[in-house]
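Feature request, filed as a ticket because there's no other form

It would be nice if the structure record came with a short human-readable summary line next to the tokens. Right now we just get the raw output. Example of a typical job, pasted below so the devs can see what we mean:
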Amino acid sequence: MDAIEAIIEGAAAHADEAEVYLSGAESVGAELSRDRVRIGQAGHATGLGIRVFRDGRVGVSSTNDPSRWEACLEAALAAMRLADPQPWGGLPGPIDLPERRLAYDPAVTLEPGKVAELLEGMKEGALEHPAASVTAGSAVLSRTRVEVANTGGLRYADEQTHASCSVEAIAGTSTGFEFDASHALDLDPVHVGERAAFFAAHGAGGEPLAPGTYDLVLSPLALAELIEVVLAPALVGRNVHAGRSRLAGRVGEAVADPGLSLYDDPHLPMGPGAAWFDAEGVPTHRVDFIRNGVLAGFAYDLRTAYRYGATTTGSAVRGGYGGAPSAGFHTLVLEAPVADVTADEAVYVRSVVGAHTANTITGDFSVEVSNPTFVAGGEFTTPVSTAMWGGNLFDLLGAIEGVSAERREIGGMLLPALRLGEQRLVG
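Raw output as currently delivered:
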């Protein structure tokens, strides 16, 4: 904090405003190669990001050595002097925020023994399907701390914990994978290993699929892969105003099934991006994007909001300490009418390959389905060797036949499995 105060004082002599973002992380982890630990790692990293403002000009600089803050500040000031002016209304001031940490579990301690337990649990689970064998895996425990400060007197800090594990398995030419991630030490590594091995073993007997129309059940992972590439960018204010969103100019219109709602809930305890403040120090709050099928709004950070005459939604996020923040999401939640999505026969889509090739503006996509299998009565039945699926994600939002009651954390999203009717598949 002493360094932060020194940076703020130094910046105030040359800029109208300044912002300091300081992050630190400690972690311990290990990787599997087949059924043996290939490498164990312990790490510590820090990073410093500085933004300075004068007459609408913005300068940004960062360093992974906070002790060199003077050089970092000078680089930010030099960038500011060269920048073109843009609309700017000022950084946020401080307000009282809750002291309770939203994403912290004291049980997440950086002990190699706990990492070993996660690895052994996944190996144990994989043994339930002897036809498959583990090829790779990993487990990581970490703690992070971020601090945001500015010349307006704002001083916020937050600590988070994180635990994750993942494993890959193979049976002949069929592969399977599974993972789990949480801010708490509540992972189920045995289930992770069992599911990875199951999908590998189950897929080994895959049969060809006749081209035709099928009902589909998208797993939370498959749904996340499509939302991340197509729908999420369409909800970012910068893309909307730049003409890169199919949803531009449609606030107040029906864009999805009347039962569907999509919102960002940063205050959800242990949510993927749970936080009381965003990457710019703006207090966070729930942001509704689609409410009962109707488009309600978009995500804004300060810079985009000032540029387009909007109001920030407290949606600024950072991919790290380097660069400037941008509008994004904390915990994106999808809700729709709950149903038993696997009761009637359908093709289960575990994940997709090629989502990155989707047209982010029109929403058109063509993907390969990974680990496809028929499902009925809540059970996986006949595996499918391979399948291709194409469609339009925006059109699919109006074709939902129900979602599962269970939701799963995938990246920065909390998503259910989702059932779609009459989708065209090619084997």
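Something like this underneath would help us a lot:
The helical segments are 2-12, 69-82, 112-126, 189-203, 220-234, 237-241, 302-308, 393-396.
Residues 101 and 159 are 7 Å apart (CA to CA).
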